[in-house]
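User: Please fill in residues for this 309-position structure.
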Protein backbone atom coordinates (compact mmCIF):
# COMPACT_ATOMS: atom_id res chain seq x y z
CA UNK A 1 0.00 0.00 0.00
CA UNK A 2 1.27 3.45 -0.90
CA UNK A 3 2.36 5.54 2.09
CA UNK A 4 -0.09 8.32 1.22
CA UNK A 5 -2.94 5.82 1.57
CA UNK A 6 -1.62 4.79 5.00
CA UNK A 7 -1.56 8.39 6.17
CA UNK A 8 -5.03 8.95 4.74
CA UNK A 9 -6.48 6.12 6.82
CA UNK A 10 -4.52 6.62 10.06
CA UNK A 11 -4.50 9.84 12.04
CA UNK A 12 -1.35 8.51 13.67
CA UNK A 13 0.74 5.73 12.16
CA UNK A 14 2.55 3.14 14.25
CA UNK A 15 5.62 1.55 12.66
CA UNK A 16 8.54 -0.70 13.56
CA UNK A 17 12.11 -0.94 12.29
CA UNK A 18 14.21 -4.09 11.96
CA UNK A 19 17.65 -4.86 10.60
CA UNK A 20 18.33 -7.96 8.46
CA UNK A 21 19.84 -10.94 10.29
CA UNK A 22 23.24 -12.27 9.28
CA UNK A 23 22.97 -15.87 10.53
CA UNK A 24 20.27 -18.58 10.39
CA UNK A 25 19.93 -18.41 14.18
CA UNK A 26 19.47 -14.64 14.11
CA UNK A 27 16.96 -15.06 11.29
CA UNK A 28 14.88 -17.47 13.34
CA UNK A 29 14.93 -15.08 16.31
CA UNK A 30 13.96 -12.13 14.15
CA UNK A 31 11.02 -13.86 12.55
CA UNK A 32 9.75 -14.83 15.98
CA UNK A 33 10.14 -11.20 17.04
CA UNK A 34 8.25 -10.06 13.96
CA UNK A 35 5.51 -12.61 14.62
CA UNK A 36 5.18 -11.24 18.16
CA UNK A 37 5.04 -7.61 17.04
CA UNK A 38 2.72 -8.11 14.07
CA UNK A 39 0.01 -8.88 16.62
CA UNK A 40 0.20 -5.17 17.55
CA UNK A 41 -1.08 -4.36 14.05
CA UNK A 42 1.58 -1.82 13.04
CA UNK A 43 0.82 0.42 10.09
CA UNK A 44 4.06 -0.67 8.43
CA UNK A 45 7.51 -2.02 9.18
CA UNK A 46 10.85 -0.85 7.77
CA UNK A 47 14.07 -2.75 7.11
CA UNK A 48 17.54 -1.18 7.29
CA UNK A 49 20.17 -1.49 4.59
CA UNK A 50 23.92 -2.02 4.70
CA UNK A 51 26.37 -0.28 2.43
CA UNK A 52 28.72 -1.93 -0.06
CA UNK A 53 26.91 -5.26 -0.05
CA UNK A 54 27.15 -5.82 3.70
CA UNK A 55 23.42 -6.53 4.03
CA UNK A 56 21.98 -5.52 0.66
CA UNK A 57 20.76 -8.96 -0.36
CA UNK A 58 19.69 -9.72 3.21
CA UNK A 59 17.51 -6.60 3.16
CA UNK A 60 15.96 -7.59 -0.15
CA UNK A 61 15.29 -11.14 1.06
CA UNK A 62 13.74 -10.01 4.34
CA UNK A 63 11.49 -7.46 2.64
CA UNK A 64 10.26 -9.99 0.08
CA UNK A 65 9.64 -12.55 2.81
CA UNK A 66 7.69 -10.03 4.85
CA UNK A 67 5.60 -9.09 1.84
CA UNK A 68 4.80 -12.76 1.23
CA UNK A 69 4.07 -13.75 4.83
CA UNK A 70 2.38 -10.70 6.33
CA UNK A 71 -0.31 -8.21 5.45
CA UNK A 72 1.82 -5.45 6.97
CA UNK A 73 3.51 -3.26 4.31
CA UNK A 74 7.32 -3.41 4.36
CA UNK A 75 9.38 -0.30 3.65
CA UNK A 76 13.00 -1.06 2.73
CA UNK A 77 15.74 1.50 3.30
CA UNK A 78 17.78 2.42 0.24
CA UNK A 79 21.07 4.32 0.38
CA UNK A 80 23.20 6.25 -2.08
CA UNK A 81 26.64 5.12 -0.96
CA UNK A 82 28.61 2.76 -3.24
CA UNK A 83 25.83 2.47 -5.83
CA UNK A 84 25.68 3.03 -9.56
CA UNK A 85 22.57 4.22 -11.36
CA UNK A 86 22.24 0.78 -12.91
CA UNK A 87 22.32 -0.93 -9.51
CA UNK A 88 19.66 1.36 -8.09
CA UNK A 89 17.51 0.85 -11.16
CA UNK A 90 17.77 -2.94 -10.79
CA UNK A 91 16.83 -2.70 -7.10
CA UNK A 92 13.79 -0.59 -7.94
CA UNK A 93 12.75 -3.07 -10.63
CA UNK A 94 13.12 -5.91 -8.12
CA UNK A 95 11.01 -4.21 -5.47
CA UNK A 96 8.36 -3.11 -7.96
CA UNK A 97 8.06 -6.68 -9.25
CA UNK A 98 7.44 -7.91 -5.70
CA UNK A 99 4.79 -5.30 -4.94
CA UNK A 100 6.84 -3.13 -2.58
CA UNK A 101 5.07 0.20 -2.43
CA UNK A 102 7.41 2.46 -0.45
CA UNK A 103 11.08 3.22 0.18
CA UNK A 104 13.10 5.23 2.69
CA UNK A 105 15.75 7.13 0.69
CA UNK A 106 18.93 7.84 2.66
CA UNK A 107 22.42 9.14 1.95
CA UNK A 108 23.91 6.24 3.94
CA UNK A 109 27.17 5.84 5.78
CA UNK A 110 30.40 4.52 4.23
CA UNK A 111 31.02 0.82 4.89
CA UNK A 112 33.32 -0.20 7.69
CA UNK A 113 36.87 -0.13 6.44
CA UNK A 114 35.96 2.53 3.84
CA UNK A 115 35.73 5.62 6.02
CA UNK A 116 37.65 7.62 3.40
CA UNK A 117 35.26 6.58 0.65
CA UNK A 118 34.82 9.40 -1.88
CA UNK A 119 31.12 10.21 -2.08
CA UNK A 120 31.47 12.18 -5.35
CA UNK A 121 32.37 8.87 -7.03
CA UNK A 122 28.92 7.52 -6.23
CA UNK A 123 26.17 8.04 -8.78
CA UNK A 124 24.13 9.74 -6.06
CA UNK A 125 26.06 12.00 -3.72
CA UNK A 126 23.08 12.98 -1.56
CA UNK A 127 19.67 11.63 -0.60
CA UNK A 128 17.99 14.27 -2.77
CA UNK A 129 19.64 12.73 -5.83
CA UNK A 130 18.20 9.34 -4.89
CA UNK A 131 14.74 10.86 -4.35
CA UNK A 132 14.88 12.40 -7.82
CA UNK A 133 15.96 9.13 -9.40
CA UNK A 134 13.13 7.22 -7.72
CA UNK A 135 10.70 9.84 -9.02
CA UNK A 136 12.10 9.31 -12.50
CA UNK A 137 11.50 5.59 -12.09
CA UNK A 138 7.95 6.31 -10.96
CA UNK A 139 7.35 8.48 -14.03
CA UNK A 140 8.49 5.64 -16.28
CA UNK A 141 5.40 3.65 -15.39
CA UNK A 142 7.33 0.52 -14.41
CA UNK A 143 5.72 0.23 -10.98
CA UNK A 144 2.35 -1.60 -10.79
CA UNK A 145 0.92 1.32 -8.78
CA UNK A 146 0.53 4.23 -11.20
CA UNK A 147 1.89 6.53 -8.49
CA UNK A 148 5.08 4.50 -8.21
CA UNK A 149 6.95 4.22 -4.93
CA UNK A 150 6.06 6.31 -1.91
CA UNK A 151 9.26 7.94 -0.65
CA UNK A 152 10.39 8.71 2.87
CA UNK A 153 13.47 10.69 3.96
CA UNK A 154 15.25 11.18 7.26
CA UNK A 155 14.84 14.12 9.62
CA UNK A 156 17.13 15.16 12.48
CA UNK A 157 15.38 16.90 15.41
CA UNK A 158 18.70 17.44 17.19
CA UNK A 159 20.53 18.49 14.04
CA UNK A 160 22.23 16.66 11.21
CA UNK A 161 25.78 15.71 12.28
CA UNK A 162 27.21 16.85 8.94
CA UNK A 163 25.35 20.18 8.85
CA UNK A 164 25.94 22.31 11.95
CA UNK A 165 24.06 25.25 10.42
CA UNK A 166 20.45 24.52 11.36
CA UNK A 167 19.05 26.92 8.76
CA UNK A 168 20.93 25.22 5.95
CA UNK A 169 19.89 21.85 7.36
CA UNK A 170 16.20 22.79 6.96
CA UNK A 171 16.91 24.07 3.44
CA UNK A 172 18.33 20.64 2.57
CA UNK A 173 15.33 18.87 4.08
CA UNK A 174 12.86 21.09 2.23
CA UNK A 175 14.75 20.43 -1.00
CA UNK A 176 14.27 16.67 -0.49
CA UNK A 177 10.56 17.17 0.09
CA UNK A 178 10.25 19.45 -2.93
CA UNK A 179 12.06 16.80 -4.99
CA UNK A 180 9.31 14.33 -4.18
CA UNK A 181 9.54 12.94 -0.65
CA UNK A 182 6.14 11.96 0.77
CA UNK A 183 7.05 11.86 4.46
CA UNK A 184 9.86 12.34 6.99
CA UNK A 185 10.96 9.82 9.61
CA UNK A 186 13.16 11.30 12.34
CA UNK A 187 16.19 9.93 14.08
CA UNK A 188 15.62 8.87 17.67
CA UNK A 189 15.41 11.49 20.40
CA UNK A 190 14.68 11.52 24.13
CA UNK A 191 13.44 15.09 24.62
CA UNK A 192 10.08 15.80 23.00
CA UNK A 193 10.81 19.52 23.01
CA UNK A 194 13.44 18.82 20.35
CA UNK A 195 10.88 17.10 18.13
CA UNK A 196 8.13 19.68 18.61
CA UNK A 197 10.56 22.51 17.86
CA UNK A 198 11.79 20.62 14.78
CA UNK A 199 8.20 20.13 13.61
CA UNK A 200 7.44 23.83 14.06
CA UNK A 201 10.59 24.84 12.19
CA UNK A 202 9.62 22.50 9.36
CA UNK A 203 6.23 24.20 9.21
CA UNK A 204 7.87 27.62 9.07
CA UNK A 205 10.12 26.37 6.25
CA UNK A 206 7.10 25.26 4.22
CA UNK A 207 7.63 21.53 4.80
CA UNK A 208 4.11 20.15 4.88
CA UNK A 209 4.52 16.36 4.59
CA UNK A 210 3.82 14.06 7.57
CA UNK A 211 6.65 13.82 10.12
CA UNK A 212 7.05 10.55 12.02
CA UNK A 213 8.81 10.59 15.41
CA UNK A 214 11.57 8.02 15.96
CA UNK A 215 11.57 6.39 19.41
CA UNK A 216 14.06 3.90 20.87
CA UNK A 217 13.78 2.93 24.55
CA UNK A 218 16.96 2.48 26.57
CA UNK A 219 17.10 -1.17 27.65
CA UNK A 220 20.60 -1.41 29.15
CA UNK A 221 23.56 0.75 30.08
CA UNK A 222 25.62 -0.82 27.31
CA UNK A 223 23.20 0.40 24.64
CA UNK A 224 23.59 4.09 25.53
CA UNK A 225 26.73 4.71 23.49
CA UNK A 226 25.51 2.54 20.65
CA UNK A 227 22.25 4.43 20.43
CA UNK A 228 24.06 7.76 20.38
CA UNK A 229 26.27 6.52 17.55
CA UNK A 230 23.30 5.24 15.55
CA UNK A 231 21.68 8.65 15.63
CA UNK A 232 24.83 10.68 15.07
CA UNK A 233 25.03 12.23 18.53
CA UNK A 234 21.78 11.85 20.46
CA UNK A 235 21.49 13.96 23.61
CA UNK A 236 20.31 12.32 26.82
CA UNK A 237 18.36 14.58 29.19
CA UNK A 238 19.88 14.75 32.68
CA UNK A 239 16.74 13.33 34.39
CA UNK A 240 16.94 10.24 32.16
CA UNK A 241 20.65 9.76 32.84
CA UNK A 242 20.08 10.20 36.56
CA UNK A 243 17.28 7.62 36.57
CA UNK A 244 19.39 5.16 34.54
CA UNK A 245 22.36 5.57 36.87
CA UNK A 246 20.23 4.94 39.93
CA UNK A 247 18.44 1.97 38.38
CA UNK A 248 21.71 0.41 37.25
CA UNK A 249 23.23 0.63 40.72
CA UNK A 250 20.16 -0.82 42.39
CA UNK A 251 18.78 -3.38 39.95
CA UNK A 252 21.05 -3.79 36.92
CA UNK A 253 19.86 -3.92 33.32
CA UNK A 254 16.38 -5.12 34.24
CA UNK A 255 15.78 -1.96 36.25
CA UNK A 256 17.38 0.16 33.51
CA UNK A 257 15.01 -1.34 30.94
CA UNK A 258 12.05 -0.45 33.13
CA UNK A 259 13.26 3.16 33.31
CA UNK A 260 13.74 3.26 29.54
CA UNK A 261 10.29 1.82 28.85
CA UNK A 262 8.59 4.23 31.24
CA UNK A 263 10.46 7.18 29.69
CA UNK A 264 9.51 6.11 26.15
CA UNK A 265 5.90 5.58 27.23
CA UNK A 266 5.74 9.14 28.56
CA UNK A 267 7.30 10.38 25.32
CA UNK A 268 4.70 8.57 23.23
CA UNK A 269 1.80 9.69 25.42
CA UNK A 270 2.91 13.31 25.11
CA UNK A 271 3.50 13.00 21.35
CA UNK A 272 0.02 11.56 20.86
CA UNK A 273 -1.43 14.40 22.91
CA UNK A 274 0.36 16.80 20.58
CA UNK A 275 -1.08 15.03 17.54
CA UNK A 276 2.09 13.50 16.21
CA UNK A 277 1.58 12.13 12.70
CA UNK A 278 3.36 8.86 13.45
CA UNK A 279 5.54 6.99 15.94
CA UNK A 280 8.34 4.81 14.62
CA UNK A 281 9.98 2.34 17.01
CA UNK A 282 13.62 1.38 16.48
CA UNK A 283 13.28 -2.16 17.85
CA UNK A 284 16.89 -3.44 17.55
CA UNK A 285 15.15 -6.71 16.56
CA UNK A 286 13.70 -7.12 20.05
CA UNK A 287 10.00 -7.30 20.85
CA UNK A 288 9.69 -7.01 24.63
CA UNK A 289 10.25 -3.26 25.10
CA UNK A 290 7.98 -2.27 22.22
CA UNK A 291 5.19 -4.57 23.40
CA UNK A 292 5.43 -3.20 26.93
CA UNK A 293 5.28 0.41 25.72
CA UNK A 294 2.32 -0.43 23.51
CA UNK A 295 0.53 -2.05 26.47
CA UNK A 296 1.33 0.97 28.66
CA UNK A 297 -0.24 3.32 26.14
CA UNK A 298 -3.57 1.54 26.50
CA UNK A 299 -6.15 0.63 23.90
CA UNK A 300 -7.51 4.15 23.50
CA UNK A 301 -4.08 5.65 22.77
CA UNK A 302 -2.57 2.96 20.55
CA UNK A 303 -1.37 4.71 17.41
CA UNK A 304 -2.42 1.94 15.01
CA UNK A 305 -6.01 2.25 16.24
CA UNK A 306 -6.18 6.00 15.79
CA UNK A 307 -8.08 6.30 12.51
CA UNK A 308 -8.30 9.44 10.48
CA UNK A 309 -11.72 11.05 10.18
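Assistant: Residues filled in for all 309 positions:
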Amino acid sequence: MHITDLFATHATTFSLEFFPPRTPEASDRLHQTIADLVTLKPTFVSVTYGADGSTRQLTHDLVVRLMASSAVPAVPHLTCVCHTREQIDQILEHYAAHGVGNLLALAGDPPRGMLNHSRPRDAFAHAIDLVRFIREFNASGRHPDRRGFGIGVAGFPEGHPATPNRLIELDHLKAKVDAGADYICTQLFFDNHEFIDFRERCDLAGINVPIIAGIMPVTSVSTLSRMAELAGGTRYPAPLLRAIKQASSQGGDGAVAQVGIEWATRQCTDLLRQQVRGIHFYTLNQSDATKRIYTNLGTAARPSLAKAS
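For context: Confidence is low (pLDDT under 50) at residues 303-309.
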